[in-house]
UniProtKB/TrEMBL annotation:
Pfam families: FecCD. Belongs to the binding-protein-dependent transport system permease family. FecCD subfamily. It comes from Roseateles oligotrophus. It is found in: Cell membrane. GO terms for molecular function: transmembrane transporter activity. This is Iron complex transport system permease protein. InterPro entries: ABC_BtuC-like, ABC_transptr_permease_BtuC. Its main location: membrane. The keyword Membrane applies. PANTHER family: ABC TRANSPORTER PERMEASE PROTEIN MJ0876-RELATED (PTHR30472:SF25), FERRIC ENTEROBACTIN TRANSPORT SYSTEM PERMEASE PROTEIN (PTHR30472). GO terms for biological process: siderophore-iron import into cell. It is a multi-pass membrane protein. Keywords: Cell membrane, Membrane, Transmembrane, Transmembrane helix, Transport. GO terms for cellular component: plasma membrane.
Length: 349
């Protein structure tokens, strides 16, 4: 279909994406509450830790009255909190895109091998690096997209082949994980511990130098995503309905899947594979906000990642647990609850 016909459907697409007019105020109110919750977790992440700061101490530090506290806030905790924010939002959006396209609640980057492919690419970068450092951030992006391309090639795409894509994705994830373990066994002992820590999903090494290109990349991906959102809303109606309305389904699916893979790859490049965020955040967002909750999925992804990192710093202080471990502990029970709740509803019907 021509772009003109799709653009003519904007009012209907907005209704589809935002829900009925009666429910829109509730949805925006919930999004506002989620944003406030993310802001609260961000501030708490700056103040809490092995060395806790009071709001007054933080204020004095920002005014330059406490050099040590200022260094702690500016150079250690702020980049880490911003990294959690960016990573969580990227994973939440990536999970929502994949679940919508595959029409399957279990479709997410960590399930279909995207995370493992990105980690393998970074590990290979370290293996062949002359200075013994992890590969540059774009290697994770390349690894994620290559893994996703392999899944699409073997499964014949997503959508109607959503179940097959999940099975192929599990196989690709297993292959990539085995490849990473081979890399881990091959690299020098001095680097294997850092690589293993990264593979667990850790925000400990976050820095402004790392965040700048990733934040620019995320901004660019969001700009690229915007013109494809009307097509995503149409795809929720089903492939045949979208085709009847003139949407070029194959082109839209391919572009949206690639954008989802790129978003996930960017997230992994910062913190490693933080599991369950991309799976659980969209499910919670749909449960609370309804159809196609893009903003809600990003906010919930950010909140889950901030919370996982914060708990990892506090629970066994001064020992820090990787955020990926805590995200699994948080996300697993939530996922189980959502699946059991939906199963109960289906049995009731």
């Amino acid at each position: 279909m021509s772009r003109l016909r799709v653009s003519a459907l904007q009012p209907g697409l907005y209704y589809l994406a935002e829900g009925s007019p009666q429910l829109r105020p509730r949805r925006w109110a919930l999004n506002a509450l989620l944003a406030l919750g993310v802001l609260g977790l961000l501030l708490l992440s700056l103040l809490a830790g092995e060395l806790s700061l009071s709001p007054l101490q933080a204020w004095k530090a920002w005014r330059g009255e406490d050099a040590m506290a200022l260094f702690l806030l500016q150079e250690i905790r702020l980049p880490r909190a911003l990294a959690a924010l960016l990573v969580g939002a990227s994973l939440g959006l990536a999970g929502l895109l994949l679940q919508t396209l595959a029409r399957n609640r279990l479709a997410s980057p960590d399930v279909v091998g995207v995370h493992d492919g990105a980690v393998l690419a970074l590990g290979l970068g370290l293996m062949f690096s002359a200075d013994g450092l992890l590969g540059p951030w774009w290697l994770a992006l390349a690894g994620a997209l290559l893994s996703l391309a392999l899944v699409l090639l073997c499964a014949g795409g997503v959508g109607r082949q959503g179940q097959r894509a999940l099975i192929v994705g599990l196989a690709v994830a297993a292959l990539a994980r085995s490849g990473f373990e081979l890399v881990l066994a091959t690299v020098e002992l001095a680097h294997s511990s850092a690589l293993y820590s990264f593979s667990m999903g850790s925000l400990l090494a976050s820095s402004y130098t790392q965040l700048l290109p990733v934040s620019l990349g995320l901004g660019g991906l969001l700009i690229l995503l915007l013109p494809w959102l009307p097509g995503l809303a149409l795809l929720q109606l089903g492939e045949s309905q979208a085709q009847l309305l003139g949407l070029r389904v194959g082109r839209h699916r391919l572009m949206l899947v690639l954008l989802a893979g790129a978003l996930a790859g960017l997230g992994v490049s910062v913190a490693g594979p933080i599991g369950f965020v991309a799976l659980v955040a969209p499910l919670l967002a749909r449960a609370w906000l309804g159809s196609l909750p893009l903003l809600g999925a990003a906010l919930l992804g950010a909140a889950l990642t901030l919370l996982a990192d914060l708990l990892g710093r506090l629970l066994l202080a001064p020992v820090e647990l990787p955020a990926g471990v805590l995200s699994g502990m948080l996300g697993g029970p939530v996922l189980l609850w959502l699946l059991l709740r939906d199963a109960g509803r289906e049995d009731g019907e």
